[in-house]
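Subject: two folds for Thursday's group meeting

Dear M.,

Sorry for the delay on this. The cluster queue was jammed most of the week, so I only got both jobs back this morning. I'm pasting them in the order they finished. Each block is the input sequence followed by the predicted structure tokens. Could you check whether the formatting survives your parser before we put anything on slides? The first protein is the one we discussed after the seminar.
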Amino acid sequence: MIHRAVRWRRAGAVALLLATLWLPRTAAGGVADSPLPSFSDETASVSVLVIPGVVKRGRLQTEVLCTSWAAAPLHIGVEIFDSAGTLLNDVHAGVGAVLNVASGQTVSIGTSATLGFLESTTIPLAEVEQGVARVVASASAVTCSALIVDDAVTPPTALGTLGAGVTLGPGAGLLGAALPQFGNAQTATHSASFPGLIKRGRMETVVFCTSLAATPIDIGVQVFAPNGTLGNDIAAGNGALLAIAPGATVTFGTTGTLAYLESTVVTLAGVAQGVARVVSTSGAVRCAAQVLDAAVTPPVSMSELIGYAPAAAAPPTATATATPLPALVLNPIAAPIVVGAPLSLTGTGFSPGSVLLVYVATASGAQSFGPLTPSARTAITMTVPIPASVGLGNGFATLLLVNTDQGYRQSNTQSQLLYGNPAINLPTITQINGVALRPADPTIPVANVETVVAQGQTVTLTGSGFNSPLVNLFTAGGNMGPLAPLAGGTSTQFQIGVPAGTPTGPGSFQVVNTPYTANVLSNAVSVPIGALLTISGIAQVGTTVTVDGTGFSTLSVINLFAQKAAGGVDNFGGLGVGGTAKIPLTVQSPTRFSFTAPAGAASGPAFVMVLNPPYIPYSSSGSGPSGAFTLSVP
């Protein structure tokens, strides 16, 4: 197990690296389970609105317009999740966020700049076919609208409202139409209806649904004609999708449209005009619907349909006005979180139903643990045992409280370093060559040490719980381990030799205790190998740009800020879809690499920044003048 491969992932979004180097992450349940972000000044956020059907496809973009009604300035942000529930932007890094919005002020946050609107900020994304947006703010006194808009012309060819939709309610909703059974023998329990469904000529209907459930669920769309006749059979699979994953967004269409990418199409004769009933095995579903011209994109006409859900049964007796609940706040965590030991938390608004979710940064993305039940609790204090089964990953954890007895309302998040408990044979690295771990920083979710480890030299690892250890050393060339300690080590400190052939670039040390199976792995601590990233010179011959410096590796990525041929300035580098570098590098040695001037760039002043995993400031060449040069484009 100690010879496992390692995949380098983003450690944190920092302003230095800009949005293009933030890698998407998939939460355990998409928008429902993804922790609410804090803003760049560490102000916590609350959820304002969830909007299914967000799209960025061709000329179609999504525009979210929000007005503050708060007495004091507040922050507003928009998070975009794709159809699989993957979060695509980092509000904490400022991507999709507008700070200090004054009372009465309206801001516009778009998936692209448009000719029809003047955006306050835009979210740089690849295509999104179709996902969900979550509007967050530092206070709840915000109202928002969303639009689908043609970004290329003004007035837009296509301009349609995208409502917040409706959450499914219990029961059938439509009298005389019992809830159906799906093809897997599961019976629907919840529904919502959208009057005005149409399938006539070029006019068609699409329904967007986002699962907010914690487990897979079934969702279907039934179509009723004006006379109430049912036009499709959910049990036969016509208009049904089974086992929808938590956080996923699915799109039902009465035909395939050019504007959208449908998950399934309901086979129908013409309908003018009827009702669409969304049915599901869960009420944790939010849906929206549109009527649009299916034959062209952007559509020349499109409009929202308003949905209605059955109301839950009224309480048997009237009650007095409820006392407002205290804010659910989790205070900062002063010391590292220890796996296999009780964790003490403080804050406000803790309830008998409070549970803790733990998100651990790992080489393959965030791993969630929980919900964890407190062993002791008051309204302002809580003790939660952290199970011995929690892996240390990259040595960094983010916590989120959920009050399950109060509508599953969520706290702000707090983060800390993650340590192991020696009593359960779980080791921890706290220093490398006498340099301590960098203090916890929510923008850099990885344990790291700001020092350089040289090849062919002896390295001292300090920490706790070392028990006949071996050491993994993950590098750009793979795992150089397992490395055996030199003689004379103790349970808190030992030395190893770094192989002379270790490649320059990113490195990560991880201690593995005997018996070398099960949860006996320490935190993986990031440290540069060989040299820091620097730039000493940049030259260009033809379309080839050559960069000299130190610390370059086969995993290096560049940001390239340059003028666009179409006007303005853009970052042509960074990471694209799937974490692939947008500008391929030819690395000749740790001191030289080259790349081809990208298409779309224009001649003029430019700037190169080089970064190695885990893409944090210490593993970048920085923003100094050595990265500046004049780009020449034939």
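Second protein, same layout:
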Amino acid sequence: MNLTNKNKLLIYIICIIAVISMVACVIGNVFNGKVEIDNDTGIANVALNSNYSAFANGSTYTYTDLNKVEAAHSDSSKSDTSVILVDREQNHGSLQNPYVINSLAQWTFFAGNTGASDVDKVYVLGSDITFSSGSFTPVPYFYGKFFGAGHTLYNVTYNFGSNNDCGVFRVLHANGIIADLNLQNVNITSTGGRVATLVGTTNGGDILNCHAKGSVAGVPTHVNVTAGTISQSYPVGGLIGRANGNGIKVYIYRCSVNVKITVNAALDGASVGGILGGFSGSDGTASSMIYDCVAIVDITNNSAGIDIWFGGIVNYNTFIGEQAIENCVSYIKATDNALHRVSWSSLFNGWAWTMSKLSIKNVFSDGILKFKGNSKVYGLPAAIYYCENQALSAISNVAITSENLNWYADNEFIVGNAQATLDVYVYRSLANTKYTGAAGLTQEDMYNKAQSDLPSAIWQQSGNITPSYMSNTDVTSTAGYTVDNAPNRNTNIKTEDFKIKYVNLENGAEKEYAGSETTYNYKDTTQMYTPSGKDSNHEFVGWTIDKTGNGETYKNIPSDLYGDVTVYAVWDVPQSSVSKESIISGESDGAFVKEYSDGSTLTLRADISITGMTNPNITYKWQKKGEGTVLGTSSTYSIANVAESGEYELHYTVTDKVEPLWRHSGKTAAQSAEITPGQLYVKDNTFTIDSTTAP
């Protein structure tokens, strides 16, 4: 076929485009975390995003699992955490191979580059980070999963000016999760609303096992609305400012705060809460499940003549749905400079116009109230509500489930119509125990009961729930609450003193080397335990985290190893134990040369033997010398044609059946094998020479 110059040019262009596409694909694989092969181990590893770190293959990390929260909250015998085994073959940023943040630079990159495209991404804080003045950057919008792994952000200070949605994470979107993160000495300031230490606004995302100590300053307000319109609510909270949206169900589980809140309310009825400040909802479907939380709060309203509605755990506002406060403890020190309606409570408060259900169980609330220019100290009521209009209808008709309600109030401030408030426990005839300081009903009695009644599996440090601990609201004090000693903090999520367990695999069992366990910290590279071999045929190679034996081996702790791990001893044999390592002829005459004959082959046979191993498993790879193609994988290999003649090598691995990580890999010397040409003859005797075949 003749090609015109035009056609030749077209083909040339197509070829160039194909080459460019291939190059682009390779480059794309590098930047998008596609699989690469480690030339040393043969293990597939993905390309890493250089802006983050990664845990070593086989590391483990633990996180509070949202899917286990309800079960663990209801049944203390069940765990609320999951442990992930890191697999570097998975995409970087996945649950099995998360983006790891270890430094200020990595946090700053994370804060400036996360967004909607990260909805399936997982981030793990691998180390504590201490911020210096002006170095902290908040996260504007977060869609993924952030697991703090029990680590702490220290000295977080940020002034948001007049902006709304203020916190370490400004907006947490639906399906987003922040878990196991601590904030020590966090200070968030704004002249706007939706302000808190950790999250300014959650649009349905969940906050699990997070703990904060510090201060919040904001200007809570709201826009009066009618049903069917999402309220423009600007609450202030200790941990979370606002839960926003219809159809959301926010879990706030196992969290705690010791926070100083200062507000300058802009409108009567502004919403403030010790854990959650308030809501924005329009159709009565916004829900929150607040389980196993602690609030120690010092709050001051500095707005003259403008009141706030404050609940020690939460304030309920706008149009909301099912709510729960269960297994919670609070202590509130409130200072009211407004001198308007008195709407403060130690557990919850509210003026929500709808609420479908309310569960209050196993709660212990306490607090005091002071007024500007008045030296008297009053006890706070536990739960109050707005007693007019649609809010009164809401609290009158809501289905309430209550159990074990406890509160302390010496010299209680009595609410009533003058403050447009009602006592929910009284109004709804909820059985409760009021501690007043009398014999058997002291503050200490209540906190002792809290220690006894709260589930110990979650409240691992419940012994700290004492009058002196709870009433120390000074966020600069080291004598009371810290994120480390929070009564409900999950102490099983370790940040240091990880354990390496050393074992030998024998007959499918893991036999631990007694007294060998190593304690280490992330980034340690110290030498690992060196075991002694059973006999002279055992030569120690190193430790592997991959019990199949296909992973890397180590004698020093890998620098990126994290978490509690089990490692397995890998053994070889000394060369002196290799008694046979050759290729022998499989022919009866022992020859390596054979004349070609139709249907006949020349057979090569492996001759491998290791001293000390009884009937081991052997894998074979037959190759021509200098070529990488595997031609056969059995103990013999046959050639049949002249073209197959050449020098052959056998690569092999011998594995002990009792100890599968006692193995030896080797290669035989090259062996020549030759098929020589045979005699030529005519097979079909009907062949004749005639005029069609003759020249």
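Two things I noticed about the second structure. The radius of gyration is 36 Å. Confidence is low (pLDDT under 50) at residues 1-43.

Cheers,
T.
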